[in-house]
Amino acid sequence: MPSILPRVRLSVKEKLCQHLRRCRLAGVRIRYLIVLNLLNGRPAYQTAEVLGVHNTTVYRVARRFREHGEWGLWDAREDNGQTKLDDHYLAVLHRVVRGTPQQYGWRRPTWTRELLVETLVRQTGVRVHVTTMSRALALAQARRGRPRPTVGCPWAKAAKTRRLNAIRAVLAALPRGHVAVYEDEVDIHLNPKIGLDWMGRGQQKEVRTPGQNVKRYLAGALDVRTGQVHWVEGLRKTSALFLDLLNRLLQVYAQAPVIHVILDNYRIHDSKIVQAALRWWGGRIRLHFLPPYCPNDNRIERVWQDLHANVTRNHTCPTMTALMREVRYYLRKRNRKIAKRSSKTSPAEAAA
Length: 352
What we know:
The structure is a single chain. The protein is of the alpha/beta class. The protein has 13 helices and 5 strands. The protein has helices spanning 10-22, 26-39, 44-51, 55-68, 87-97, 113-124, 130-139, 157-172, 239-252, 272-280, 300-312, 320-343, 347-351; strands at 179-189, 215-223, 229-234, 259-263, 285-289. Helix 10 (272-280) links the parallel strand 4 and strand 5. The termini are far apart. The relative contact order is 0.08.
């Protein structure tokens, strides 16, 4: 089968090989390889198969090489004018996707690529194709994710800041022998939490649920200094569960004169029976309440997030007994890893 390119001198081939080795643009390198394969007598269909391109691409590159020579291998779109996806366009796009369509006058609550195209026309005067918007979103490092539901703190910003600063001051000036912990409860459901997972193309995994849900509750405390987690389990999330945890802390830190507990404003933390128990313990336990709806300031929340990610999300445990076994195993393994890491830390590093 005759080649679709005319014969050239050996010096031309050598020059093309030299320019191929120096080229750093993937698209241009492919065009050089197409031409060199054709000049060496390889048919178009074999060239397309070897290089992983379509037949039409091989013929198009060959035609441009015949018409324009080596310069025809370079992308001619540079002469089409200034690129639309410049730094200003991407900066505006980054700002827009951080908000909602309703902030820009649309009734829809979530973004689509078509809606972003129209919004960017209003903001920049530049119109791009929907597929170009996909490339722009990738360049702006935008991602399609699941929003996190939050509740705003009802306190004034100044009051919230004063409370958080007071708690930070307690932790910064913690006397020798005193202990500080972050406390919170977590629900364990037999019906698994459904979360994202990797799947094959055209596949959707199934998570078999028991149907009838069963619940267990954990009350945990995260040691500020060591990172260890102490917890108790219960069938109900009541003040009794919270008092069981406080009793557990008194046993673990039997030598500590004061245990500072940083916690949220859930009603079981400030009931009459809890207040009576605190008086009975003679000030050995002091409660420091966070502002309402501030989970990000309670460090044990991250532990519960990791627990759900590693144990309860998409789990396949058929019974609550099996699920709680996995929960205990994860928390104990976590404590062992932290203790092992702490044992490798030198006294000088620990003091620092």
